């Protein structure tokens, strides 16, 4: 939060409920070339597997690479950079709310209200709003280690839909660190969570039945929930600019967020450096939200199995085109090509429901 005065000599407050030290998440994303975080990319793969009962392929994704950043490395890298800027003050407190206008900024921290001078305020605390469609992307992952060299570090798996689909859209994936170590995740796109022991059981089954591994040690685990929703995310509310998931940067149909956050951050920085108003920030283009909500409708109402949709997407289109589309970077012409490869009626019906 920037308090007052010109940008270069302002005091910045960074408020979080807790220090970011744990390796609480692993970010994966695809990228063509290198970017700001290249030095902390933990592993990257030039090829990814897509697996289902109807389509199996190793996809070459050049010019993209599929990359992984570990949460702990990301936090260390960012806080090291932050520590070089004495104008940034870090405060650990529970944020109850915030608002700002041309007269003052109000902050509720640990249930106490603070009045500060007017400021530019960015908020990354997500508080769910109104929506019609709510799917959760929930997953549990284990980093496993084996005595025998069983993984191919030259490729990752993006989605393995060969697992049962009893709860709804479900897939697993494997991100090998080397021949002996990999992160194995079990993921669902459903409105309800599983009981905690179910994730463990499904991971065990997947490792035994599909990876054919019987001897291994679980070194680390992660659990996550990413909201996939048709909620309309206002960029600005009570003078506060929402960023990250709170700012609508989670793609509703895939849960991928990391790269959208980087793009939003680049845009914010560009405006600040040019001295332009942050009111120029734009929401996700309407047509991409429309596509996302259409797919979300299908996943939510289970009018088509997610396994069939993703298998068709990757079978009938070039993987790079699909990744570009999922990045919201495709042209309308490319999108029409991709949409026409999908089953017409369920998508048409779901699309019409979005226009109501
Ligand atoms: C386990 C996991 C794995 C993920 N993997 C991927 C991935 O592979 N690829 C991808 O693209 N996306 C992934 N995501 C989705 C998304 O990229 C992450 O959730 C990302 O961290 C979102 O960034 P953010 O800044 O919006 O929120 P966060 O990173 O969650 O930051 C919000 C911050 O606000 C703090 N906070 C929250 N509430 C309060 C409060 N009331 N008071 C004070 N502080 C508060 C939190 O401590 C946190 O530091 C993953 C998410 C999870 C949970």
At CATH level 3, the topology of the largest domain is FAD/NAD(P)-binding domain
What integer is the average pLDDT?
A: 94
Tell me the fraction of residues in β-strands, as a range.
25-35%
Total separate domains: 3
Tell me the number of strands.
18
Using only CA atoms, what is the Rg? 22 Å
Provide the CATH architecture of the largest domain.
Answer: 3-Layer(bba) Sandwich
Query: Which ligands, by name, code or SMILES, are bound?
Result: flavin-adenine dinucleotide
- Under CATH at level 1, the class of the largest domain stands as Alpha Beta
CATH superfamily of the largest domain: FAD/NAD(P)-binding domain
Task: Tell me what the structure shows.
It is a single chain. The chain has 356 residues and is an alpha+beta fold. It has three domains: 150 residues, 3-Layer(bba) Sandwich (FAD/NAD(P)-binding domain); 95 residues, D-Amino Acid Oxidase, Chain A, domain 2, CATH 3.30.9.10; 70 residues. The chain is built from eight helices and 18 strands. A hairpin with a 4-residue loop joins strand 4 and strand 5. The radius of gyration is 22 Å and the shape is globular. The N terminus is likely disordered. It binds flavin-adenine dinucleotide (FAD). Flavin-adenine dinucleotide (FAD) binds next to strand 2, strand 16 and helix 3. The site of flavin-adenine dinucleotide (FAD) has 23 residues, from strand 2, strand 16 and helix 3.
């Amino acid at each position: 939060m920037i308090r007052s005065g010109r940008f270069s000599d302002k005091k910045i407050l960074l408020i979080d409920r807790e220090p970011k030290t744990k390796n609480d998440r692993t970010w994966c994303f695809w990228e063509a070339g290198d970017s700001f975080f290249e030095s902390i990319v933990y592993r990257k793969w030039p090829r990814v597997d897509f697996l289902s009962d109807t389509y199996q392929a190793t996809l070459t994704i050049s010019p993209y690479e599929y990359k992984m950043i570990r949460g702990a490395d990301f936090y260390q890298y960012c806080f090291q950079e932050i520590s070089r800027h004495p104008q940034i003050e870090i405060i650990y407190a529970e944020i109850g709310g915030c608002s700002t206008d041309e007269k003052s900024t109000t902050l509720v921290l640990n249930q106490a209200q603070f009045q500060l001078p007017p400021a530019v305020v960015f908020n990354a605390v997500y508080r769910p709003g109104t929506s019609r469609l709510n799917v959760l992307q929930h997953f549990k992952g284990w980093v496993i280690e084996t005595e025998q060299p069983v993984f191919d570090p030259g490729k990752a798996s993006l989605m393995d839909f060969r697992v049962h689909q009893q709860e709804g859209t479900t897939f697993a994936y494997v991100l090998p660190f080397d021949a002996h170590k990999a992160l194995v995740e079990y993921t669902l796109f459903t409105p309800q969570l599983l009981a905690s022991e179910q994730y463990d059981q499904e991971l065990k089954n997947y490792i035994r039945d599909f990876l054919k591994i019987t001897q291994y040690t679980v070194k680390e685990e992660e659990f996550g929930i990413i909201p996939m929703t048709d909620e309309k995310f206002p960029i600005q509310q009570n003078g506060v600019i929402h960023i990250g998931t709170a700012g609508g940067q989670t793609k509703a149909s895939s849960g991928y967020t990391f790269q959208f956050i980087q793009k939003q951050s680049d845009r914010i920085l560009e405006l600040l450096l040019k001295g332009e108003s942050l009111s120029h920030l734009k929401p996700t283009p309407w047509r991409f939200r429309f596509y996302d909500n259409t797919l979300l409708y299908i996943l939510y109402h289970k009018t088509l199995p997610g396994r069939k949709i993703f298998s068709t997407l990757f079978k009938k289109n070039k993987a790079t085109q699909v990744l570009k589309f999922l990045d919201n970077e495709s042209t309308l012409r490319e999108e029409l090509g991709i949409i026409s490869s999908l089953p017409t009626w369920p998508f048409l019906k779901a699309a019409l429901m979005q226009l109501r």
